[in-house]
Structures are given as structure tokens and as C-alpha cells.
Amino acid sequence: xxxxxxxxxxxxxxxxxxxxxxxxxxxxxxxxxxxxxxxxVHLDWMEPGVATWLTAQAGLEASIVDxxxxxxxxxxxxxxxxGYSMNLRGVNLNKEFDPADMIxxxxxxxxxxxITLRNQxxxxxxxxxxxxxxxxxxxxxxxxxxxxxxRLVFRIDGEIRNLEENLDDLEDLIEDVPESKTLPxxxxxxxxxxxxxxxxxxxxxxRDAMAKYVEQKPGWSDKIHKRRARTLTDRVTRLVEELDSxxxxxxxxxxxxxxxxxxxxxxxxxxxxVIAGLFLPISFVTGLLGVxxxxxxxxxxxxxxWGSRLFLPLWSGLKSGCLxxxxxxxxxxxxxxxxTTAAKTxxxxxxxxxx
Length: 355
Fold this sequence. Notes:
Number of strands: 7
Radius of gyration: 35 Å
Strand order of the largest sheet: 2-1-3-7-6-5-4
Order of helices and strands: EEEHHEEEEHHHHH
Number of helices: 7
Structural class: alpha+beta
Strand content: 5-15%
């Protein structure tokens, strides 16, 4: 393993004080750990030689290393005789990245050792380093894992809050959107639904992993840690429920936009039908009177032309009145449908807030 793979390392005691360790401390063997202390090693698993170092220097089994230093991991937790491995996900808050492209965090935890691995910068580790600088670091390996998981969930919660606010603004725009400007809002709705789906794809397994962690962990160094883990599991479960609720709201918003576009299309088709209905009989009559055969009525009459000119406008006016009456009835029905859809959206939003 190259020195670039080691991001940081600390020896932390049960008073929350940490001492930084360098690459030289791990060059040949592991540093000594006293009573009430544990070592935190933070690595970049994309660097070459990390898997070999985990096996040779850290003494981890090959099956454990596979879960820590391979691509495409899924949030999970696995227990062993001398510790456990955990894979979690956190939102990507780096520049030029989408937060929904969640970063994988791999953890190995035993009584005296915590190894964390990631491939991109994560602010959760900045929080822990800041607590070490203030001599307020987690006092045990279990406390360290829980603190890291809490910082990850904290930023996931913040991202979901941002999406909820964006969806609130989108729903306000949909209520007054002109019929000719629904396409940009539909694209925003589809993009938001896609981001919600990507977040849920990782957070739902993380909920299951945390529930397994609470129920199946063999022992706890302090009972308060188990209560923290159960509280954290409840928070992740609530986040999954909120993601499901936001997805439902995006679907309702999309349905509302579709109703507006359908209304516009129906109105366009209606007026095309009106125009065709007005001119088709006139075209039929004029075409019939223009047939070059004998026996056409009023062909030799002096009032035939003026009679046809009077009859056709009267016919068009009568038909226009009938079609206008039908149009008013249809417009009232369409407005009722749109109002009902908007009311359902508000009702569902109020239900989600109350829940």
C-alpha cells in the first residue's frame, strides 16, 4: 500500500483525546494500543495495495477484505467472531456531483481497531476529525461507528429536506402554470422523481442494515450505544417513508400536468372539430349544387343564388350556437376535473406533513 492510501490515522482514548499517527507507524507493524484505547485508520480503497495491506498488516480475512475493498457494495452489516464489517452510504456533497450519487463508506470495527474506507471526500469524516481536534472524539469503537452513521444520516436528511422544498415550489408553480408551459415543469418533475428513486435505492437497504445491526450485534460496550443505534434506525426508517411520500407527490404533480396538457389537446381537437363541422355541410351543399348535370333545384331561378347565400349563413349560425352551448358545458367539466386534481394534491401534501 502506498502512503497516498492513508488519509489519516489516530489513536483515541476513552477520554475523547486523539493522537495522530503517520504512515511510518504502520510501515512494518501495527502501533501498540493500551487499555481504553482504539486506533482509527482511514483509507482510500481506490489506491493500489489496500486489499493486500488489510490482509497482511491488519490481519483481516480474505472474505472480510472482499466486502471492504470491492466495487458496487450494498449497504449491509456482517458479524464475525472478532468484530463486524459494515457498508453504508452517504450523499455526495462534492462540487460538480449530484448528491444522489451516494458515496460508499466501508467500516471494519473491533474492540481496538476501526478501519474506514472511501473513494471520495466525505464531510462526515471532517466532523469526526474536528471532534478529535477539540478532544471530544468518540470514546469507543462502537461509539465511533454510531457517530459516523449519525453524521451520514444527518446530511441525507438535509438533502431530503432540500428536495421537499423544491417539490413545494414546484407544486405552487403547477397550480398557476399556463397550458403552453407545462413541458419544463414535467421535466423537473421527472428529474426529481429520478433523484428520489436513486436515493431510496441506497437508503432502504441502509435501513435494513441498521435494523440488523441493532438486533444481531453480539454485545455492546455500553447500553446507551444500543439505544443510539435503535434511534438511528428509526430515523433512517422515517427517511425511507418520506422518500416514498415525496415520490407519490411527484406522481400526483405529474398527473396534474398531464391533465393540463390533455385539457389543451382536447380543446384543440374540439375547435378542429368545430371548424370541420361548420364547413363540411357548406362544402357538401356547394359541391352538390356545382354538379354539371340537369335537374339542379333553382338552377334557372333568379332568386336561387341569393337564396343559397341566405341559407348557408343561417345554417352556419344555428350550428355555431349549438356547438358553443356544448363547448361551455365541456369547459365546465374540464375545469372541475382540474380543480379536483389540485385539491387532491393539496390534501395529500397536508397528510404527509401531518404524518
